[in-house]
Amino acid sequence: MKITREEVEHVARLSRLALEPTEIDVLTGQMDQLLGYVEKLNELDTEGIVATAHAVPMENAFRADEVKPSLGLERALQNAPQSEESCFVVPKVIE
Amino acid sequence: MSFSQMSIRQLQQALRDGKTSSVELTRACLARIAATDERINAFVTVCAETALAAAAEADSKLAAGEAGPLTGIPIAVKDIFNTAGVRTSCGSRILENYTAPYDATAFARLQEQGAILLGKLNMDEFAMGSSNENSANGPVRNPWDLERVPGGSSGGSAAALAAGQAFATLGTDTGGSIRQPASFCGVVGLKPTYGRVSRYGVIAYASSLDQVGPLTHCVEDAALMLGVVAGYDPADSTSVDCPVPDYLAGLDAGVKGMKIGLPREYFIEGLDPAIKQAVEAAIEVYRGLGAEIVEVSLPHTDYAVACYYLIATAEASSNLARYDGVRYGVRQQGEGGLSGMYEKTRAAGFGDEVKRRIMLGTYALSSGYYDAYYLKAQKVRTLIREDFLKAFEQVDLLLTPVAPTAAFKLGEKTDDPLQMYLSDIFTIPVNLAGTCALSLPCGMDGQLPIGLQLIGQPFDEMRILQAAKAYEAETDWHQQRAPLD
Amino acid sequence: MHSRYEVVIGLEVHVQLTTKTKIFCGCSTAFGQEPNTQTCPVCLGLPGALPVLNQQVVEYAIRAGLATNCRIAPRSIFARKNYFYPDLPKGYQISQFELPITEHGWLDIANAAGEKKRIGITRIHMEEDAGKLLHGGNSGSRVDLNRACTPLLEVVSEPDMRSADEAIEYLKQLHQIVVYLGVCDGNLEEGSFRCDANVSLRPFGQAELGTRAELKNINSFRFIKQAIEYEVERQAELLDEGGKVVQETRLFDADSGSSRSMRSKEEAHDYRYFPDPDLVPLVIDGAWIERVRAELPELPEVKRRRYVEQFKLPAYDAGVLSAARATAEYFEALVGLHAQPKICSNWVMGEVSRALKENEGTIADCPVSPGLLAGLLKRIDDNTISNKIAKTVFEEIWRSGKSADQIIEEQGLKQVTDSGAIEAILDEIIAANLGQFEELKGGKDKMLGFFVGQVMKASKGKANPGMVNQLIQKKLAE
């Protein structure tokens, strides 16, 4: 086994996905199969190989420190599931 | 000649000559959508009213002689492009009510050049899929055979064209999502070099692999569309400030003396005989046109799918964290306060494939596994990229099949994610290498189109367009239309 | 303090930068605006939006790195720190993890014994701030994303501090430097300079560090001291009782003077850092670094030493004048116009600072410019007015913005240096106070002050006090 049911449950929590027990079962099997498949990368010796983040070499993309118009309150909140007093509202957060 | 057989340039001429009007073309497209889309399901949103209004405006521009290269041409874009004022749902339940307050750069450029937006096209949820069966809006059907898939994730973009519903469409390609559906639906699909077209406003799946490109009826249209959307965008840090050639002007240069490489790893046993035959016939066409055919090797091809699924899912797991029900999207309330809201919103909002990839990607990045999975995959990506760079020291471009088979049946691979992933074996390496490639029709497997892939050097879209144009001039596969009444 | 344990403190300081716009978008960073009015697709984390780095942030980071003796990395990258929280719009914070922009620096502080002590700076990296979560609404918590994506430098120290006082010394010095550099407004109340403290104890002589607690987001020097001292007590008691310190984040409550545990950090946190594919590597060449170095202002420590050496100022004066960049600039401008450093120092630390305090002003917008003040000091120097009158003139300059000369002229404040006129006044006063004059003659020196005072009073302060003295001596000798 590449991955256990408990690990799948942990990853689901990290991913903030409420999964049904049956979904966990199916995913455990599928992730196990996929992780088994990607094992084949270990056939390759990558010692000393530089990791590629972008396939096209690129560096230093900047913008100048100039103020651009913001969206405006109405458009900023237009898709909000819940809002009041110019703010997005979420279920009460206890610190 | 009917409009559906005309290139965009020919349509433009007809518009300028007053032989037709943008309103007429737009009406024709809307009528075709109305007549066929119940079967195809290519469109998730049709904006008939705004399209007709824009068409009327285009007609006055045409009359005033102020036309741009796309003025009055009805097009449609994948529902992954943000379009201010028109819903953008990205094939997902979580965004089913989402309307962006801004435009994607690529779409804005089409509009600036006068294109008419017919609507938004169906797709695999968050561009994750190879069959367009992972859509909250239901699957798209292949106009050539309604029992079959159109390919994915830009299934709607390919099917709408094949069904004659639009004159050109825009898609995105992360592991083959333009080329494979183009191949399955018998149209031309171009994935430009990473950095060639701005990703700004395109909903991200895997940021280091995603690229925007056109799907069209012919190579000339692809060249025209690329010319409009390509170019540096200061809003995208990964867009490259590199001159955009006049693709249309150089299109007819031919292939005489061109060196075309055949990567031996792409002509393998699993390749469907019909595909093999069609591709081999295409090779002979090129030989006949004076190209030199050379065998080359891309030795790490077999590792590409594994490499891709680690990198793409890792990036996706992070890119999709923003769908948390706070600022937009469909929120699910429930017990458990904030974390309950998060978990229920995301569980109900995402489909199975998206959840699977978020899970795999989260795992690949998680503490203790990063080096073994994500970092390893990035290193293998280097090897794959170097394969291409070495091959391009010997040849001008590469020629391969697009997919191992023609369009498969709906439901055929949905239960086996790995088999589905493996069907992208010929397209995925191009995204990992970041270079450009094009799919064009090169034959038929019975009633189903077959696609040929031409892979170019980074930022040398010109060469693959020239080669594709030369092939198209010799054959008539691109003139075939799906038998859809 | 508990002598059985050695206190080990490392600090993480979040320095909010004074750029006009956010780190990855063009929204304004102005403080105190209506919630969510300074937001755009990028800082709201809308689908499809992409970050582009503000070049000024890089400039500021290089400045801060050079000023704290760090090495500037020729190549650095941004990473995503993944976690869910309503004030974090994208579900990840763009920060730097591997390959930060600067590393391996230090600052020298003075410890309790007054000796120089070097505090290591592990790294300084760039990152975006989160938004604000406002608690206490009826329907839930409210999210304001105006602050989201505001540029921060995170300055991470080595665990080199051994007491709350050392921590405060380090913080004050770092604060002074970033404000001097012009990269931070230093406003603690508005959260422009926020500190997390990692505190642990270990028995003296033990090499490995004890388990640490992290004290979060404390925004005043006084509270930091309180929080650290409370934490040291708490841990020492725990250890004394044979207990164990748990690695956790604690929130200090200034009202009760105590801290409480936030939920254990390990719970569901796995930040899954990886390079942000939406941003490209940052490459800084030697020419860029040297340009920034050349433009660096003289730092307070160097300035202080120079004031002592070049201007022969007492160490105290040098320290006060160099503590804030604006004060130092004012002072240096003044000395440039009036080459008597100690007199300039007295005036800046005296009248100028008193008037600023009374009027709640800052020296940057002091109505008495160095030029106006130098004009005044010249008139003291050439005996046109006395020191005492000068203070009146200073008030008038402050009020009216007129030059000292104009005020002296208009109000007839010119010192009387005509000895005949002063002698006439003196004669009158002696005549009226013959008894006291005899006492003075008899050696009662206290009476000297009386006669000087009377003359000054009669002349409305304009008589030159030196001259008055001379004339009295002359009368005594007669």
Strand content of chain C: 15-25%
Strand-pairing-aware structural class of chain B: alpha/beta
The name of the CATH architecture of chain B is Alpha-Beta Complex
**What is the makeup of the main sheet of chain B?**
11 strands, mixed
Assembly state here?
Answer: heterotrimer
Q: Biggest sheet of chain B, strands in spatial order?
A: 1-3-2-4-6-5-10-11-9-7-8
Output the number of helix runs of chain B: 15
The global form of chain B is: globular
- Major sheet details of chain C: 9 strands, mixed
How many helical elements of chain C?
15
Number of strands of chain C: 17
Write out the strand line-up for the largest beta sheet of chain C, numbering strands in chain order: 3-7-8-11-1-12-13-14-15
Number of beta-strand segments of chain B: 11
Largest interface: A-B, 51 and 70 residues
Q: What class, by secondary structure content of chain C? A: alpha+beta
The CATH superfamily of chain B is known as Amidase signature (AS) domain
Low-confidence stretches of chain B: none
Write the layout of secondary structure elements.
The complex is a heterotrimer of chains A (95), B (485) and C (478).
Chain A: H1 5-14, H2 21-38, E1 62-63, H3 73-77, E2 83-84, E3 87-90
Antiparallel strand pairs in A: 2-3
Chain B: H1 8-16, H2 22-40, E1 43-46, H3 48-63, E2 74-78, H4 105-112, E3 116-121, H5 155-162, E4 168-173, H6 179-185, E5 188-191, E6 211-216, H7 219-229, E7 259-263, H8 273-288, E8 292-296, H9 304-319, H10 337-349, H11 352-365, H12 371-394, E9 397-401, H13 417-422, H14 428-433, E10 437-445, E11 448-456, H15 461-474
Parallel strand pairs in B: 2-3, 2-4, 7-8, 7-9
Antiparallel strand pairs in B: 1-3, 4-6, 5-6, 5-10, 9-11, 10-11
Chain C: E1 5-16, E2 53-54, H1 55-67, E3 71-72, E4 75-76, E5 79-82, E6 92-95, E7 102-110, E8 116-128, E9 132-134, E10 141-144, E11 151-157, H2 164-180, E12 193-203, E13 213-218, H3 221-240, E14 248-253, E15 258-261, E16 274-275, E17 282-283, H4 286-295, H5 300-311, H6 315-323, H7 325-337, H8 341-359, H9 370-381, H10 387-400, H11 404-411, H12 419-432, H13 434-441, H14 446-458, H15 465-477
Descriptive key words:
heterotrimer; A: 95 residues; Histone, subunit A; 3 helices; 8% strand; C: 478 residues; 3 domains; 9-stranded mixed β-sheet; 3-stranded antiparallel β-sheet
